[in-house]
Amino acid sequence: MEKRRDFMKKEMRRKDRLVSEEKAREIIEKSEYGMLCTAGLDAVPYAVAVSHVLYENIIYFHCALVGRKLENIMENAKVSMSFVSKAEVEQEAYTVRFESAVVEGTAKMIEDEAEKLLALQLICKRYSPDLLEGHLDYIQPRLKHTGICRIEIDQVSGKVNKKV
Questions:
Q1: Which helix (H) or strand (E) holds 129?
Q2: How far is CA 79 from CA 1, 88, 132, 136, 145, in A?
Q3: Which ranges of the chain would DSSP assign to H, the alpha helix?
Q4: Tens digit of each residue's pLDDT (9 = 90 or more) over 114-136
């Protein structure tokens, strides 16, 4: 079997577009969703959009308790996520101005009820900030039927193509 190449440790070709880890994390926080990329034992890539929240060095997202992404994670916990917080086509320059970030990490499903509750509260706070008082009433009856995945971040990088 061919040895895995570690793309995140390779130098970025366009160093002029590289941003700091702090800026990459800001891009993750500003992105409305992230594209989770998994591969099971069959090594077939699978990408799906998820609603995420960045908390310290962890990305949480909620999901169903069954499905292809979870099967892949159970078979191969190594995942990647891609985020784009801005994208604007500039026709005259034949380019897209963007801010993007990529994460590599290790995913696992959360079983601990306290951590699941924390993750769901963080997700609700992020996506429904005007409904803070109702979060627990909404979450509690759904807790047992909602999957929560946790990604421990190993690597973060960011790239920006902005007007000069």
A1: none
A2: 19, 27, 31, 30, 24
A3: 21-30, 68-75, 113-127, 135-139
A4: 999 999 999 999 999 888 787 78
Between the alpha carbon of residue 59 and those of residues 62, 109, 119, 163, the distances in Å are: 10, 12, 9, 30
What's the predicted TM-score (pTM) here? 0.87
What is the gyration radius of the CA atoms in the chain, in angstroms? 17
CB 80 within 8 A of CB 104: yes
pLDDT tens, 56-80?
999 999 999 999 999 999 999 999 9
Separation CA 132–CA 112 (nearest Å): 23
Contact 38, 72 (CB under 8 A): yes
Q: What is 13-109+151-161's CATH topology?
A: Pnp Oxidase; Chain A (2.30.110)
